[in-house]
Amino acid sequence: MLHKKYSNQILEHFHNPKNVGKLHDSTNIGKAGTKKNGEIVELQIKIENNVITDVKFMAYGGVVLIAAMSFVTEWLKGKTKEEAMALTEDNIMQALDVPLTKKHAVLLVIEAVKTTIDYITT
């Protein structure tokens, strides 16, 4: 019964996730999570002239992780590295109306974004 537990925004991104897959010309790949914890995400970002031009992700995990990754990949497009680094868990929690019990998934998304952006040196 997903419809009673999650917001419409979460369900939309979960059932119709955006930017799933792999980039063939990414600037960098970042990963977060472990098999042991049951949730893993890989994020690929392409940056040109300090602006994120394309983003893709692959994820293994629950509804909120997949929905949050879909949301964030859409949000990241067109942002600078600095704008991307300013993203917080509160931004995602509020935008998707994430239950507090699922905050761990949002924190994993933030970790993936920051790890990927931190590594980029272009």
What does this structure look like?
The chain is an alpha+beta fold. The protein has one domain: Sufe protein. Chain: A (Alpha-Beta Complex). Helix content is 46%, strand content 22%. The protein is built from 6 helices and 3 strands, in the order H-H-E-E-E-H-H-H-H. It has helices at residues 2-5, 8-15, 63-76, 81-85, 89-96, 103-119, and strands spanning 28-34, 39-48, 51-60. The chain has a 3-stranded antiparallel sheet with strand order 1-2-3, covered by helices on one side. Strand 1 and strand 2 form a beta hairpin. Helix 2 (8-15) crosses helix 3 (63-76) and helix 3 packs parallel to helix 6 (103-119). It is globular. The N and C termini lie far apart (45 Å). The mean pLDDT is 90.
Q: What's the end-to-end separation, in Å? A: 45 Å
Strand arrangement in the largest pleated sheet: 1-2-3
Q: Which shape, going by the Cα principal axes?
A: globular
The largest sheet is: 3 strands, antiparallel
What is the element layout, followed by pairings?
Blueprint: H1 2-5, H2 8-15, E1 28-34, E2 39-48, E3 51-60, H3 63-76, H4 81-85, H5 89-96, H6 103-119
Antiparallel strand pairs: 1-2, 2-3
